[in-house]
């Protein structure tokens, strides 16, 4: 066997043994199984939601509205992945793997860097083996979910397994920060805190970008709605207030747009954690299918000042659809590609620093 | 640039290391370690011994280096596969068993699976850890971890094995066993580079030694070469020391309660007339023997400041 593969395999097996020796790894694995069991315990039929054999009467929530396939896909994507894997399981993974890099640069580094392996390769291989925790957890979760969906929902959806690479990529955005901070500071606590703060920062940047996108879209929809009315307006008196509103909407758009573009540029440079998770929804083809409460009362005759984000003419449904179109129009290469570029740049810096330092 | 050197396992002509912060840890180090010998590196704490070892094993980046290790420039990554290394403050993963640890380092140096299993068994037996091989390292004593460390350093059948304080934390019986292991390693033709501050250990097993003081090599050579300058002939006799002793180059001394005369760098032949004269003056001769300084005396002289008579300050920082 080639020495590169031999070393990579040895480090991978070593990482598995390390995880195997940690209680948290097994606790997280059991929790994963429990969460899938909870999903499996839920069901839906023509009368309502079921929990094992008990019925819950929730008005309107029946298999007529949510076919079992969609019900379980929603549970899997929203609760299983969107909440459990993306938050709780990720925090457990960060805590479990936080010691890998500080321990590498304090304890076992002498014995490893004195072996015939270049330092960048050692650093990057250690990083890759650190993803093993998440790989194991997501693989177990998805496999169990696959069977639950098959047995309970009657759908054998192999597409669920797309969650494995998606979650691995998502976790790698955070773990690269933890790896670099851990190797620079040699501190487990510092690496956990900085990673969590970075996660919050990325999340806030995402929320800010989404909010300003919404603001910009409201004005775009508003302008389109006003222009449509202007075409239909017959009298000068009828056109005058519309022209005033159009002017105001354009002014407002001129404010929202640069703010949104700035946040979009910032977000482009950062890992897109939320959008990466949402790729799962896209792949399960259910995003726009979930019914939303209709806002028809906000229709064409909406009273000034009561519209969506202060709009008069834009309907919430139209705005949501426009935002949805914008979001789904964002290509996968932009979401994952630019995020991985951030990761590659950070890991490149970490590997460079690791190569330059004395131990 | 030093050309490939076939007769030396380690041939350093110039090594300098200045750490961030300006600590000058190594100053123009030049050193040769012949193949097949046990070479001892001596020095007080902070002399730069571990830094030098770390430069050779690429753990520390030198400020300047000229030299070869096993015929390749220092820092040549593939050559590290032909070196075995036991660091001073190693921390082997507590979750591994002794056997897994040895096999892991075998894989990291490119030893094929079947071979490393066989080598691990042999080495665990050699270091007396076969019975404990399948217990986790976390349950080992310091001495047991040192043995596992030596086995791990040897798993790739290295041509050069570098051991940094291998008997640190080991009891006297364990030290003796480790010394025997070192002799076994040499018997197989492997070069051993032993870094230690235990003079007795070095004196017992090393063919050649270097003494480092404040980042410099103060002395280097075989123990015989290092103590040659202190060679003298000692004559022990009863009665008072003769008044003419200084005239013939004798230095008065006491030995087991008797008067004695030391004749530095003298030969047995050159001292014969003096023995005759002592006898002719009625003195009884008790012994006549060649003496030389111990390695400890040589070491202490090198680490002592001749002006103050006190040990030089610890560390390589002084004298910056």
Task: Report on this structure.
The complex is a heterodimer of chains A (359) and B (320). By secondary structure, chain A is mainly α. Chain A folds into 2 domains: 3-186 and 338-356, no CATH class; 205-332. Chain A contains 13 helices and 3 strands. In chain A, α6 packs across α13 and α8 runs parallel beside α13 (332-356). With 320 residues, chain B is of the alpha/beta class. Chain B folds into 2 domains: 8-226, P-loop containing nucleotide triphosphate hydrolases (Rossmann fold); 231-291, Alpha-Beta Plaits (2-Layer Sandwich). Chain B is 30% helix and 27% strand. In chain B, strands 6-7-8-3-9-10 form a 6-stranded mixed β-sheet, sandwiched between helices. Chain B has a 4-stranded antiparallel β-sheet with strand order 2-1-4-5, with helices on one face. In chain B, α2 (98-108) packs across α3 (113-126). The longest helix of chain B has 16 residues, at 172-187. Chain B starts with 7 loop residues before the first strand and ends in a 17-residue tail after the last helix. At the A-B interface, α1 and α5 of A face α2 of B.
Task: State the gist of this model.
Chain A is mostly helical and 359 residues long.
Total strand segments of chain B: 14
Structural class of chain A: mainly alpha
DSSP strand content of chain A: under 5%
Q: How many distinct folded domains of chain B?
A: 2
Which protein chains make the most extensive interface, counting residues with beta carbons within 8 Å of the other chain's beta carbons?
Answer: A-B, 29 and 33 residues
- Mean pLDDT figure of chain A: 88
Strand order of the largest sheet of chain A: 1-2-3
Supply the CATH class of the largest domain in chain B.
Alpha Beta
Assign the structural class of chain B, choosing from mainly alpha, mainly beta, alpha/beta, alpha+beta, or little secondary structure.
Answer: alpha/beta
Query: Quick one: biggest sheet of chain B?
Result: 6 strands, mixed
Query: What is the tally of helical segments of chain A?
Result: 13
DSSP summary: helix tally of chain B: 9
Please state the overall shape of chain B, judged from the principal axes of the Cα atoms: elongated
Question: Alpha-carbon distance between the termini of chain B?
Answer: 26 Å
